[in-house]
Amino acid sequence: MSLNVILPNASLQFSSVTFYQLARILLTPTVALINYTFYSTSIPRPAVYALIPACVGVGIVSYFDSKVPSNAKVRSTSFVGVIFAFAGVLASSLYTVWVSSYQKSLKLNSMQLLYNQAPVGGVLLLYIVPWTDNFWSVNNASISKWMLILLVCIDVKMTPSVG
Questions:
Q1: Are 43 and 32 in contact (CB under 8 A)?
Q2: Is residue 23 a contact partner of residue 107, using CB atoms and an 8 Å limit?
Q3: How do residues 123-145 score in pLDDT, each as one tens digit?
Q4: In the chain, what is the straight-line distance between the N-terminal and C-terminal CA atoms, in Å?
Q5: What are the backbone angles phi and psi of residue 160, rounded to the nearest 5°?
Q6: 1, 98 in Cβ contact below 8 A?
Q7: What is the CA radius of gyration of the chain?
């Protein structure tokens, strides 16, 4: 389920960063709605009251961010960006509920789940990245970029395994 990554990133091509970040706020109410609909779980009433202004705020920003005057030098959100953002919120929410149900059924904590999922994600990236990313030249890489790669390798090596 890579749509939870692809759709929000696609929305950034057609919307402002402000709208993208505010649209991501809708993850919490969407997850709560999915859990209520399919698993009959509820959240406390004060939490529902706290989610209402967040949803209204996203609606207001969605409307006004797409109505930027044509002569303004501000990047506005297009209808396509809104569709991608809301589809990304739905995909991310479904993924969150799905992973949570598997985590409960397998009786794993979050680190065990991540430890088991990371190799699959890495293999998927090996197949997707060559067709979607622009690679930097090894000859043109700065020393700071090589130092960052080295630090990441050291960090990965020093991180204890969960098992």
A1: yes
A2: no
A3: 877 777 777 766 666 667 788 88
A4: 25
A5: -70, 145
A6: yes
A7: 20
Q: How many CB atoms lie within 10 A of CB 27?
A: 17
For residues 16 and 61, give the distance between their C-alpha atoms in angstroms, rounded to a whole number: 11
| pLDDT class of 116 with cuts at 50, 70, 90 | confident
Residue 136: both structure tokens together: 């930097």
Q: Taking CA 118 as the corner, what is the angle to CA 15 and CA 13, rounded to the nearest 5 degrees?
A: 10
User: By CB neighbour count within 10 A (0-12 exposed, 13-18 middle, 19+ buried), where does 17 fall?
Assistant: exposed
Query: Cα 38 vs. chain centroid, distance in angstroms?
Result: 22
Q: What is the pLDDT of residues 16-45, one digit of tens each?
A: 888 888 888 889 999 999 999 999 998 899
CA dihedral 28, 33, 36, 37 (to 10 degrees): -150
Quick one: which of 77, 83, 95, 81 has its CA closest to 30? 95
Q: What's the chain's length in residues?
A: 163
pTM of the model: 0.68
